[in-house]
């Protein structure tokens, strides 16, 4: 993961057209690309390593009351294996966690590119009664 993200940021700083097109397709609408590039320009490799190490560390989810309902939504495209592991870990600690997996969607794609579907999913979850 570290090598992959370091490469993406390095190539973003170089304004690699392939990386920018991939970001537009999988990650961000075009209107946010300039902001993303400003952020990428200011990220160094050490920060990327720290971010990944933190995400992959022995982080433990808090145990919430059994009557607290939890919705964990994630995609399956790209590096979403981290999200899947986190979702399963959350449900292990909090069995009341409902996991919704969106096949073929990248990180944040549901909320960014399919916000109507995201809203329906969240509203559907909020509309359910706890058992």
Protein described:
By secondary structure, the chain is mainly alpha-helical. Helices cover 56% and strands 9% of the residues. It contains seven helices and two strands. The protein has helices at residues 2-13, 17-26, 33-41, 45-55, 81-93, 109-113, 115-127; strands spanning 70-75, 97-102. A two-stranded parallel ribbon has the order 1-2. Helix 5 (81-93) links the parallel strand 1 and strand 2 (97-102). The chain starts with a helix and ends with a helix. The mean pLDDT is 87.
| Spatial strand sequence of the major β-sheet | 1-2
Query: What's the helix-strand series?
Result: HHHHEHEHH
Residue runs with pLDDT of under 50 for 5 or more positions: none
Structural class based on helices, strands and sheet pairing? mainly alpha
Strand content: 5-15%
Total number of β-strand segments? 2
Helices, by number, come to 7
- Alpha carbon gap, first and last residue: 39 Å
- Average predicted local confidence, pLDDT: 87
Task: Characterize the largest beta sheet: strand count, sense, and whether it forms a barrel.
Answer: 2 strands, parallel
Shape: globular
Q: In terms of quaternary structure, what is this? A: single chain
Rg is 17 Å
Q: Give the helix proportion (percent range).
A: 55-70%
